[in-house]
Design goal:
With about 140 residues, the chain is mainly α. The chain is built from 4 helices and no strands.
Length: about 140
């Protein structure tokens, strides 16, 4: 089996995994967005911890698997590769917003201030929606 066909299968698998992780990410995002001050703090903290882990896993999966494979298979997926390169600023900005959110709300090493969680979730949600749209356009070009 050629190196290209192995990479193609890896890309197919990575894209499927990305889309499955996206569903999980959105599910926990919606659950978290549905909480408020009346939600027990332990429940919100648990949801935040789960969401932050999914968020970082999702961002990493795109960058270190899907995007890398697309760039490695450039000639076979020239259109997708061009889109990745053109949309790179959006991916970088979305990644920064995700990392900022994670740094603020990953409760493993500092106390949490949940007073502005809704504002940060809103900003992150908008950025994720733009990112998902860009990813979908690239994936459809594969």
């Amino acid at each position: 089996m050629s190196e290209t066909s192995v990479a193609e299968r890896q890309l197919d698998h990575a894209v499927k995994e990305l889309l499955q992780e996206r569903v999980q990410l959105l599910s926990v995002f919606c659950e978290l967005a549905g909480t408020d001050e009346s939600t027990p703090p332990g429940v919100r903290r648990q949801l935040l911890q789960r969401f932050c882990q999914l968020l970082i896993d999702y961002v990493s999966l795109w960058q270190f698997e899907v995007q890398d494979l697309l760039l490695r298979l450039g000639d076979r997926h020239a259109r997708a590769r061009e889109m990745v390169e053109r949309l790179q600023p959006l991916f970088l900005q979305a990644g920064e917003v995700a990392l900022e959110f994670n740094d603020r709300y990953d409760a493993t090493d500092h106390p949490l201030d949940l007073s502005r969680l809704d504002q940060y979730l809103s900003r992150l949600g908008e950025m994720l929606a733009n990112r998902f749209d860009a990813e979908d356009r690239i994936i459809s070009g594969i």
